Amino acid sequence: MLPLLTFLTLLLLGYLSGQWLERRHYRSIIEREQQLQNLPHSNSRDLLLPMQDITRVELLAGSVVISIDYFKRVVAILRSLVGGPVASYETLIDRARREAILRLKQQCPDACQLINIRIETSAIHNAAGNGIGSVELLAYGTAIYGRVQTATTAATASVLAASLQSITH
Amino acid sequence: MYMTNIETVPGKTIIDCYGVVSGSTVRAKHVGRDIMAGIKNVFGGELRGYTELLNESRDEAIKRMQAQAAELGANAIINVRFSTSSIAAGAAEIYVYGTAVRVG
């Protein structure tokens, strides 16, 4: 009787706190994403915006270790009996990934652009070693500081290039 | 020391290449953190202790890589990659590698 009672208590505790923490986390993620949406970022290796002069280049990394709650773990175990999508893990990884990218962006508020963003996931064994206890999400990229080429300088450059081409032809 | 995870250092040209340099650390989490993580595993949420630990380890690994590059006479490391692996329950390895170059 006692083990069943402990199980049910843990299940309820996990459900309530997990839901509450997740909702709070999503609210904070959305809020910070809106604050940081002006920083151009991409996962391509090329510069997003042409730069006039580059003052500094920096490698940055942001990471988070996030743990799953008891209720979700039980749901996932039950789900693995019949197969299919495990929605409870999907939101966990999604939250962690967005959080890692946010932490990366928060380190370079003055940067002009953030390029070649790479994301890595690794499972961290918990003390008991039974399946996914927690996962680490790491996001890293190159921040570029300096002055972005403005529209007028870009226009002058293209006019110059055109006239150069006409000279060579 | 310049560090990027792309093939160049924007705004600079590569003069010399010294090959691959790397740095790694293996860290164990201490018991207190493991107990806290066990409790957190019921409620869910971020494991700040582990996040901190992995950040410290990463900084240490980067320092070792930079020291190796500096020894070779390089002033930049390009194409840096990170990898994390848990080699045993309670210990994690952080590995950082890249190409040491001289830019000017």
Automatic annotation (TrEMBL), chain A:
Superkingdom of source: Bacteria
InterPro entries: UPF0145_dom_sf, UPF0145_YbjQ-like
Family per record: Belongs to the UPF0145 family.
Protein name (Swiss-Prot/TrEMBL): Metal-binding protein
The species this protein was found in: Alishewanella jeotgali KCTC 22429
TrEMBL record, chain B:
SUPFAM superfamilies: YbjQ-like (SSF117782)
Gene3D superfamilies in the record: Hypothetical protein apc22750. Chain B (3.30.110.70)
Domain of life: Bacteria
Family: Belongs to the UPF0145 family.
Protein's UniProt name: UPF0145 protein AJE_17400
